[in-house]
Amino acid sequence: EAVMSYNADLGLSFDGDGDRLMVVDNQGEALVADHLLFLLARVAIEDHRTQGTCTYASSCTPTVIFDVKCSHHLPLLIKKLGAQGQMSKTGSSILRRALQAKKNGTEPHVLFAGELSGHFIFNDGHFLLHDDAMYAGLRLLNWLYYQPISLAEIIKTLPEAVSTPDVYLPLSDYSYSVSHNTAIPSSDETAQPILKKLSTLCDKLQSGINDLAISLPTDARLTCIDGLRLDFAHGFGIIRSSNTSNSLTVRFAGDSLSDLENIQGCFVNLCQSISQDLARQVANIRVKQ
């Protein structure tokens, strides 16, 4: 409302301790977190290119780190910018450690890192190696000043996806009813067995052990660095343990609602080998309207 009221070019919003950023475009629409991460990575890459420090040969192709909850479109968008995408576990401290790690001279330079929750870190020598939301906002403002079109028009050039929110399913004596937003008694399964079963499921899928009631679709790409993630040609899904609460976090995205529902159905079937209650909760997750 404030952006529209003041006829502003964009709006910037920060969390309480100033390390997470959200952006609203000139039409009053909040940017999807995946799009914001891509734009800030683009800022870092294009500024790096204009400095003339890299010819973008394979030996100096910059790397952009993003967390496992980001969409299936992001790696392809980063590749189009002449950079290499690298998936990471979720957690701003994990991103900072990855950027602070000493390189031996043969590894690609990690120029930027970000995650779905709004933490963004520039590693191009202009600022402290820290997820400072105000600094990220200023870098975006500076970049937009030189663009011939508005932020809303830039966003229209990016691929859209149908997505669920990042849903939290508490691991406690009570499970969460996604459809009714109420706590309901669950089975006697506690958090530890659920997480152990999820880890075991990942191990089985990675090793090709076929003692499950279903098998993965042939086009599915499995990632188990942080929970269980499956990428498909037209979407992805992930279920993992939360870093900040005694919960599982779940997200699905697809190029269409049908793509999303197919991926969600695959996860429902997989979760049945972990817990029938968990499978029901995953099935009840709905796209945010």
Characterization of the model:
The protein is α+β, with helices and mostly antiparallel strands. The protein folds into two domains: 2-156, Alpha-D-Glucose-1,6-Bisphosphate, Chain A, domain 3 (3-Layer(aba) Sandwich), CATH 3.40.120.10; 162-283, Alpha-D-phosphohexomutase, C-terminal domain (TATA-Binding Protein, 2-Layer Sandwich). It is 34% helix and 22% strand. The strands form four sheets. Strands 7, 8, 11, 12, 13 and 14 form a six-stranded antiparallel beta sheet that branches. Strands 4-3-5-6 form a four-stranded mixed beta sheet, sandwiched between helices. Strand 5 (110-114) and strand 6 form a beta hairpin. Helix 8 (257-271) runs antiparallel to helix 9. It is globular, with a radius of gyration of 20 Å. Residues 55-59 and 173-190 have low confidence and may be disordered.
